[in-house]
Amino acid sequence: MLHDSPKFYPGGDRAIEVEIGDGMDFTVNFIVHRLVAAVREAGIAAIEDIIPELASFQVNYDPDRMTYEDLTAEIGRIHAAVGSGVQGSLPSRLISIPVAYFDPQTTKCIDDYCGTYPEKQPDPELVCAANDLPDRASLMRRHSQTEYWVAALGFWPGLCSLLPLDPQARIVAPKYNPPRTWTPKGAVAIGGALTCIYPDRTPGGYQLIGHTPAPIYDGTQRLFDFRDSPALFKAGDRVRFVPVTLEEYAHVEANVAEGTFRHDIVDYQVFAVDRYLEWSAARSGKAK
Amino acid sequence: MTTAQITVLKPGLETTVQELPGRIGYLGQGFPISGPFDARSFRLANLLVGNRRDTAALECQFLGPKLRFESAGLIAITGADMRPKLDDTPIPMWTTIAIAAGQTLELSAALTGARSYIAVSGGIATPPVLGSRAVFHMAGVGGSALKRDDVLQLGESDAGGTILHVAQERRPMMAANGIWQIEALAGPNDDWLDPASVDTFFAAEWKVQAKSNRTGIRLTGPEFAFSARALDKDDAHGSHPSNIIDHGYPLGAVNLAGQTPIILVFDSPSTGGFINPFTVASAALWKLGQARPGETLRFCRIDRDQAARLRAEFNAMSSPEVLDRV
């Protein structure tokens, strides 16, 4: 699953895809982020931007400053120096996101799609069936029992891909086919083995299970937590979903409207990767 | 003295402020690069008014705006032919035009090409967002498309008032007979296609769909067949042969979602879960900014050395040497 050394694929004359593994799990993604950090640290002047993704990263570069051959060789050397061992600790914020599961906005969006495609099973029931969960309450419990790892950001400003850290909380779901034309801003949804939160009203393909009134993207940077960036999450953050009632939902919504809303962010935490992997292995063992 | 500004009388179809090199360094948070779709015409417009070639200017799409200039200055219009008029009198494109305070510029629908550029001496001085004035209209990053009664502030100009001109033969050539030749490279995911489909891509004619814009150019053409890598893969990639574990999307990538190729351009998603078998050469991207729905794209396969020569040529053709004094 993890390649011995990175595989390089040219994306035209100004981008390189660097593939670390062929699969999607925490270890592969962690190595992606560590290698990206090391490449950034190396301060290669020709590199214009880097997109860390789940099992790969993209390097955008100026080919008139450094050739494809030289740059891939350099990244290969950095990889060899960093290695594929998974240990150590890194700073990792823990952000709590209030979620109203199966709320009226989510239901309305699902009904809208099912009106056009009547053969589509409503999202919560489809996800329950795909994961042997008896009912919506057990889906909510499983989804909110774990911390999630912000594995990547992309597709749309602030859109995050979240991997559950507790192996017993794994939930999988197929994506919509065809995709939805609209998704409510703040929708919480599952596709493949990932959860995402929609930062804005956009098309989408993940199965909807709930909705958060707490913005994860603020283009105007009006709210306190967005003073440095319009996007809330950074790769390597952790997220926990906190089920809330519609009353609490309305309270948060009012604070957002007033401009006084502050996210619940614990930013003094350190994430011990090797201890996490030990715990995760023990949890997986128990699940079997 | 009042600050120089422009008042928007009619916004046009989707007129935006753009700047080069675009919003660099934020792809990892999901922000596209943005910037002008036809950087060659954009740069020439700036050079004609005495600006640095990468200065913020207006990009007009398919139907141009009507603007009132509240102060005297220099303007230039390049790109698609939108038959510009100054106070109802037709004016030439590809040349420096001196305007007086209170004059009105109106652009119509594009006759050839899709995007025109209006540069103003001093440049457009909207506040930069994440380091750039380039507008990503769909998400409202850096502002959005012009609206009626908007007022745009202009920057300080030290232009001397020299009247310049781009000769016909040095302007970007719009497609003859609606057929564009687009230079492209194989990869990053050409190995997910059957080799015969790779050849088909470079041999076929591809029609630009009406649903094309700054977030993607959708194409209609032959169907693709997939290779073993696409058909027999780890479940994490997804169920369709064109699905791949979410990865970065290069600018200019030919993204294959199911059977519809979409060329990813300046406001396209930064990442996603579909393969990119081919990528348009960076120096050929400007042509996609001028290709109109219904026109035809033919892809010509080049390698990295040829792409480097195209970049050098593109750079030379958007440099001050291209301009003549009138």
TrEMBL record, chain A:
<protein>
    <submittedName>
        <fullName>Urea carboxylase</fullName>
    </submittedName>
</protein>
<keyword id="KW-0378">Hydrolase</keyword>
<feature type="domain" description="Carboxyltransferase">
    <location>
        <begin position="6"/>
        <end position="233"/>
    </location>
</feature>
<dbReference type="InterPro" id="IPR029000">
    <property type="entry name" value="Cyclophilin-like_dom_sf"/>
</dbReference>
<dbReference type="InterPro" id="IPR003833">
    <property type="entry name" value="CT_C_D"/>
</dbReference>
<keyword id="KW-0067">ATP-binding</keyword>
<dbReference type="Pfam" id="PF02682">
    <property type="entry name" value="CT_C_D"/>
</dbReference>
<keyword id="KW-0547">Nucleotide-binding</keyword>
<dbReference type="GO" id="GO:0016787">
    <property type="term" value="F:hydrolase activity"/>
</dbReference>
<dbReference type="InterPro" id="IPR010016">
    <property type="entry name" value="PxpB"/>
</dbReference>
<dbReference type="GO" id="GO:0005524">
    <property type="term" value="F:ATP binding"/>
</dbReference>
TrEMBL record, chain B:
<keyword id="KW-0547">Nucleotide-binding</keyword>
<keyword id="KW-0067">ATP-binding</keyword>
<feature type="domain" description="Carboxyltransferase">
    <location>
        <begin position="28"/>
        <end position="317"/>
    </location>
</feature>
<keyword id="KW-0378">Hydrolase</keyword>
<dbReference type="GO" id="GO:0016787">
    <property type="term" value="F:hydrolase activity"/>
</dbReference>
<dbReference type="Pfam" id="PF02626">
    <property type="entry name" value="CT_A_B"/>
</dbReference>
<dbReference type="InterPro" id="IPR052708">
    <property type="entry name" value="PxpC"/>
</dbReference>
<dbReference type="InterPro" id="IPR003778">
    <property type="entry name" value="CT_A_B"/>
</dbReference>
<dbReference type="GO" id="GO:0005524">
    <property type="term" value="F:ATP binding"/>
</dbReference>
<protein>
    <submittedName>
        <fullName>Urea carboxylase</fullName>
    </submittedName>
</protein>
<dbReference type="InterPro" id="IPR029000">
    <property type="entry name" value="Cyclophilin-like_dom_sf"/>
</dbReference>
